[in-house]
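Exercise 7. Given the encoded structure of a 293-residue chain, write a plausible sequence.
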C-alpha cells in the first residue's frame, strides 16, 4: 500500500477515518520545508525541520487512523497531539511531540512492539489507553480515571512528577525516574528500576523485580510495595500497609497501624520503630539502636 500524508498547518480529524498502507500526520506553524525521503523499497518518509515549530494534530469524535497492510505504520510529528472522544490511533510506529500528548474519553493509541513515543508531557484520563514498545516522557506524566499505560518492551519516564489516580502503568522493562511518584488507588507493575525523591502510595501497589530507590517512601491505607530487588531510602514510613522486598536499607523505618515488613535483610542506620506492626523473616542490622516497640 502507498503512503497517505496529511501536512499542515494544524491537522484535525473530526469523526473521520484514514486507512492506507502508511499514514503520516504533521505540519509546521511557520514557514519551512518538510522534506521527503523515499527508500529503495519505495517507502516514503517525511523529514521535519528541527528549527521550525510543529503544528498540532487532533483526532476527535470517534476518529480512526490505521493501516491495512502488514509492516505498515502510522507516524505523527506534532507540537501537541490530542486523541479525544473515543478516537483511535492504531498500528502506530512513531510519535514525536514537542509538548503534550492528551488521550481521554475512551480514546487510545495502540503501537506495535517496535513502536516509540517521545513527548514533553503526557495526560491519560477517563478510560484512555496507551500502548507502545518504547515510551519516553520528559516533563510530567498524569494517568487518571481508569487509564492504562502499557509498554511492550521499555518505558522511560523522566518527568518532575508521575501521578496516578485510579489507573495503572503495566509491563515496563525500562526505568521510571522522577522527583515525585504519587499513586492514589493505582498500580505500577515494573521490571525496571524505580527512582524518585519521594514515592507515596495511598491504597495503591508498586511491584518491581528490580531496585526501588527514594529519599522518602510512604505507604498508607492498605498499600503494597513488593517484588524482588532492593529497597533503598532515607526514610520509610508505612501505615496499615505492607512491604515485601529482598533487602531493605534506610536511615529510619517507621511501621504503624498493622503494617508488615518482609525482607531477607533489613538495615536501619538510625532506628526502626514498630507500633502494632510486624517485622518478619529478616536478618536485622541496626547500626545505631535497637527497634522500639
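Solution.
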Amino acid at each position: 500500500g502507498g503512503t497517505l500524508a496529511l501536512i499542515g498547518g494544524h491537522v484535525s480529524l473530526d469523526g473521520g477515518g484514514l486507512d492506507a498502507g502508511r499514514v503520516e500526520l504533521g505540519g509546521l506553524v511557520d514557514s519551512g520545508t518538510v522534506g521527503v525521503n523515499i527508500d529503495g523499497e519505495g517507502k516514503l518518509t517525511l523529514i521535519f525541520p528541527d528549527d521550525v515549530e510543529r503544528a498540532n494534530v487532533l483526532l476527535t469524535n470517534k476518529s480512526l487512523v490505521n493501516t491495512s497492510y502488514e509492516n505498515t505504520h502510522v507516524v505523527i510529528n506534532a507540537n501537541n497531539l490530542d486523541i479525544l472522544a473515543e478516537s483511535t490511533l492504531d498500528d502506530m510506529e512513531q510519535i514525536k511531540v514537542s509538548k503534550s500528548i492528551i488521550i481521554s474519553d475512551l480514546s487510545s493509541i495502540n503501537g506495535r512492539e517496535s513502536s516509540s513515543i517521545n513527548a514533553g508531557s503526557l495526560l491519560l484520563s477517563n478510560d484512555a489507553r496507551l500502548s507502545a514498545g518504547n515510551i519516553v516522557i520528559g516533563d510530567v506524566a498524569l494517568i487518571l480515571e481508569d487509564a492504562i499505560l502499557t509498554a511492550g518492551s521499555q518505558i522511560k519516564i523522566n518527568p518532575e512528577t508521575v501521578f496516578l489516580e485510579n489507573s495503572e502503568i503495566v509491563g515496563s522493562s525500562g526505568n521510571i525516574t522522577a522527583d515525585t511518584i504519587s499513586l492514589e488507588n493505582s498500580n505500577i507493575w515494573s521490571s525496571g528500576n524505580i527512582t524518585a525523591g519521594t514515592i507515596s502510595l495511598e491504597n495503591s501497589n508498586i511491584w518491581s523485580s528490580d531496585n526501588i530507590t527514594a529519599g522518602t517512601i510512604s505507604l498508607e491505607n492498605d498499600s503494597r510495595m513488593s517484588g524482588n530487588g532492593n529497597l533503598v531510602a532515607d526514610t520509610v514510613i508505612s501505615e496499615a500497609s505492607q512491604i515485601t522486598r529482598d533487602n531493605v536499607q534506610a536511615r529510619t523505618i517507621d511501621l504503624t497501624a498493622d503494617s508488615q515488613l518482609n525482607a531477607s535483610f533489613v538495615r536501619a542506620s538510625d532506628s526502626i520503630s514498630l507500633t502494632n506492626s510486624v517485622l518478619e523473616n529478616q536478618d536485622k542490622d541496626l547500626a545505631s539502636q535497637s527497634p522500639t516497640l
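Remark. Confidence is low (pLDDT under 50) at residues 287-293. Students should compare their own answers with the one above.
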